[in-house]
Amino acid sequence: MATTADFRNGMTIEFKNDLYKIVYFQHVKPGKGPAFVRTKLKSLSTGKVLENTFTSGVKVNEVRVERHPYQFLYKDDLGYHFMHQKTYEQITLQEQLVDNNDLLKEGQDVEMLFRAENNRVLSCDLPPFVELEVTYTEPGFKGDTASASATKPATLETGAEIKVPLFINIGDVLKIDTRTREYSERVK
């Protein structure tokens, strides 16, 4: 059992008969009334994010999880195929277990989250940033907009579509934030 004082980002808890990963938490001590903890919880079964407020000191069941390094091999009709980087054991996951699967490139390293009791895969997390090449985007011209933060759509080598600044061209390699799906920088 853990209390709200033990909360940390990435912690997995049992809540409302489901497993949730704490994405964000904030301890709040108002001037009047008891302290509480605001949280954003991501369901490991559905992927939905919900906001919940816990009274300070409430006990929750912490789920013991293990993280293992895997490498993405390929995708076919059966799902996404991964290989453990130390034991070379291969596993196949369904699409809903892989976050931002359209940003996944063959040979990319990922981290699998397993429930320790039954060795069941809970989620597959991409690294915070990935580098992908732009395969298609419309040309952007200087003076196209009055705003300095103008963007245009771009298709990446994995088929994912994101918004990029006007100066990005076909063939550029971009650093993409997998948590927000946003352009970070152009890689030289």
Any key phrases for this structure?
OB fold (Dihydrolipoamide Acetyltransferase, E2P), mainly beta, 188 residues, single chain, SH3 type barrels, five-stranded antiparallel beta sheet
What topology does this entry show?
Blueprint: E1 2-3, E2 12-15, E3 18-28, E4 36-43, E5 49-55, E6 59-62, E7 65-76, E8 79-84, E9 90-93, E10 109-115, E11 120-125, E12 129-137, E13 151-156, E14 161-165, E15 173-177, E16 182-187
Antiparallel strand pairs: 1-6, 2-3, 2-6, 3-4, 4-5, 7-8, 7-10, 8-9, 10-11, 12-13, 12-15, 13-14, 15-16
Short description:
The chain is an all-beta fold and 188 residues long. It contains no helices and 16 strands. The strands form three sheets. Strands 1-6-2-3-4-5 form a six-stranded antiparallel β-sheet, with no helix packed on it. Strands 9-8-7-10-11 form a five-stranded antiparallel β-sheet, with no helix packed on it. It has a five-stranded antiparallel β-sheet with strand order 14-13-12-15-16, with no helix packed on it.
Q: Assign the CATH class of the largest domain.
A: Mainly Beta
Structural domain count: 3
Instruction: Give the averaged pLDDT, no decimals.
Output: 89
Number of strands: 16
In the CATH hierarchy, the architecture of the largest domain is Roll
The gyration radius over C-alpha positions equals 20 Å
Q: Numbering strands along the chain, what is their spatial order in the largest sheet?
A: 1-6-2-3-4-5
CATH topology of the largest domain: SH3 type barrels
SS class: mainly beta
Q: Which shape, going by the Cα principal axes?
A: flat
Helix-strand sequence: EEEEEEEEEEEEEEEE
Count of helical stretches:
0
